[in-house]
Amino acid sequence: MMRGALRLLGWALVAGLALCPRGCRANCPEKKLQEREEEANIVLTGTVEEILNMDPVHNTYSCKVRVWRYLKGKTMVKGHLLLDGGNKVMIGGFGDPDICDNQVATGDTRIFFVSLAPEYMWPMHKNELMLNSSLMRITLRNLEEVELCVEGEPSPKAQTYFAVGVE
C-alpha cells in the first residue's frame, strides 16, 4: 500500500515538472545589477498606464508607461518614441520567459531596464523600447543602487566589511 502511494507521488512529481512552464519554476537566474544596467541603453522609472499589443504566439505584451524619471539614456528617447505629449513611452517584451520578473499590471510603478527595439523586430515593435531584464520595485535602496551603477560607483553593499573579534 505504502509503496503504491510513493510511486504515485513520484509520478505526480515528474508529471508536474514536465508540464510546468519554464516561468513557474522557482529557479530563475538573474544577472547582477551592474550587468543589467550595462546591457540596458535606457533605465527609467515609470508607471504602467495601459496594457496593449498582446502577442498570442509569443505570449508577450507591450505597455504604455508614464515616465517619472530617466536614470540613464534620456537623450536616446527622441520624438518618435515619445507618446501623449512626451511623458510616456511604449515598452514591449513583458511576459518574455527569458526575463525573470516580467509581469506588470496597470498602475504598477517600477524601474525599467530597456533598449531601443532592434530593426529585426520591426514593424511590430517599431518606436518601442524593449525590456532587457527583470523589473525592479521602487524602493529607496533599489533607486540608490541603480543610481550608483549608472554613475559607475560600486554599491555600498559591496563595500560592507565586518570586523570579527574587534573590541
What is the structure about, briefly put?
The C terminus is likely disordered. By secondary structure, this protein is of the alpha+beta class.
Describe the protein in words:
This protein has 167 residues and is of the alpha+beta class. The protein has one domain (33-154): Beta Barrel (OB fold (Dihydrolipoamide Acetyltransferase, E2P)), CATH 2.40.50. 22% of the residues lie in helices and 29% in strands. It contains three helices and seven strands, in the order ααβββββββα. The chain has helices at residues 2-19, 33-39, 140-151, and strands spanning 42-55, 60-72, 82-83, 88-94, 109-116, 129-131, 136-137. Strands 1-2-4-6-5 form a five-stranded mixed β-barrel. A hairpin with a 4-residue loop joins strand 3 (82-83) and strand 4. Helix 2 packs across helix 3 (140-151). The longest helix has 18 residues, at 2-19. The protein is globular. The termini are far apart. The model is unreliable at 8-19 and 158-167 (pLDDT under 50).
